[in-house]
Amino acid sequence: MIDKILETIKTKSTKKRLIIIGAILLLIIIIFFVVKYWTFSNYKVEVSDTKENTLLYNYYSIDGEILKCASDTATLSNSKDETIWSLTYEMNEPKVEVCGDDFIIYEKNGTSVILCDKEGEKSRFNTQLPIVKADIAEQGTIAVLEDDGSTAQIDYHDKDGSLISTIKTTLTVDGYPMDIALSDDGMLLGVSYIKYDNGSALTDIVFYNFGTTGQMQKDNIVSRYEYANTIIPELDFMGSKNCVAFGTDKVITYEDAKAPKEANIIELNDELRSVAAGDDFFATVMIGNENQGYEITVYDKRGKTKAVIETDFAYTSLEIKNGLIIMYNRNSMKIYSSDGICKFDGQLDFFIRQIRAVDSNRYAVAATDSYNIIRLY
Question: For 89, 152, 223, 325, which has the most beta carbons within 10 A of its beta carbon?
């Protein structure tokens, strides 16, 4: 009798637990779909500063904060436009590259590099030759492409600015380096070299490994790919093992944390207008059918199509941030998810210079006459 009572209690307890677990799973599913399909129809200005001369600055998203970068100063501010820190320097043309919480400010065509994080300046150093481009990894290692008109080289620096390695390039052998990209862990460096063979352009994509695998290879080269009759001016790493190369007539994805291999080659049959890469996906923008509007194709890291978006939005800028495709022009903004869902489509009461994401529904809007933080709702 007691055994039956205990068994009944146990059965009821098990059913109760299953009901609770089922309710929790159902709630998670509901939340997932609400977040996925949630859209915004309007916005509210939370902060407005009409005294800031936005013409002096370029703005960058730094993991929920905004970096304001001018020719002589950089300021990191929060979502309330409160200053976290600032630093000074002298640069004719400052550029910024970001990876996680770390970022660099460097002088294009100059020799200055400053490494920072959300706490402030970590180090600064000077290069031997004028800088064409620089990139940074999560732990603060830095790759710098330098060129003085007769010599081109790529320097790999530790986070304190000390030189770890130098890659010398020869125009007749290697070609000219058009772009560089560091993996998030700093182990891999991708370089796009352009060459000319009998009047035709070809591109070499070369991957260097600065870890144990690369030390066993000549010049740290772990893989190389040649593409005839193609110019590939842009490389982007998405994490530590996936890289995408954007060419004039094709997009190539690579995968492997030690020696990147081709994962997919996407042939482009129409005119490419824009490209953008984020942490988890990338996108191409082509001129639409019958030359009307645009076709945005969203791909995962390996180059598999996730979504195709048809839009007639006349954008002037496009970027991928916080898992969203953010497009804007002088008075409007449009935002898509990677699944092709339109999250926001509306006009803003500003003459827009730049828009930068603070989080999924807050944006810094640098207008011609004010700096603003808006919240979508």
Answer: 325
End-to-end CA distance of the chain: 61
> Distance between CA atoms of 5 and 272, rounded to whole angstroms?
73
Phi and psi, residue 7, nearest 5°: -65, -40
Cα 125 from Cα 120, distance rounded (Å): 15
CA-CA distance, 92 to 231, in Å (whole number)? Answer: 29
Amino acid identity, position 248: T
Per-residue confidence band for 172, with pLDDT thresholds at 50, 70 and 90: confident
Q: How confident is the model at residue 35 (pLDDT cuts 50, 70, 90)?
A: low
- R_g of the chain computed on alpha carbons: 24
**213: exposed, middle or buried (C-beta count within 10 Å: 0-12, 13-18, 19+)?**
middle
Cα–Cα distance measured from residue 61 to residue 68, given in angstroms and rounded to the nearest whole number: 9
State how far the Cα of 277 lies from the Cα of 243, in Å rounded to an integer.
10
Q: Evaluate if residue 209 carries a pLDDT over 70.
A: yes
Spatial distance between the Cα atoms of 26 and 29, rounded to a whole number of angstroms? 5
DSSP for residue 25: H
Query: Could you give the C-alpha distances from 227 to 28, 50, 111, in angstroms and in order?
Result: 47, 50, 32
Q: What token pair was written down for 276?
A: 């953008």
pLDDT digit string, tens, across residues 252-264? 999 999 999 999 9
**CA 282 to each of CA 55, 238, 277, 300, 354: distance values in angstroms, whole numbers, following the listed order:** 30, 9, 4, 7, 21
For residue 88, the cross-strand partners are 73
In this structure, what DSSP letter does residue 330 have?
Answer: S
pLDDT value, residue 1: 61
Written as six digits, the tokens of 35 are 């977040």
d(CA 46, CA 374): 5
Total-model pTM: 0.89
| Residue 293 vs residues 232, 248, 310, 351: alpha-carbon distances, Å | 25, 20, 7, 23
Burial zone of 209 (CB within 10 Å; 0-12 exposed, 13-18 middle, 19+ buried): buried
Please give the full DSSP string across 79-90, using - where no structure is assigned: TT--EEEEEE--
Q: Which amino acid is at 145?
A: L
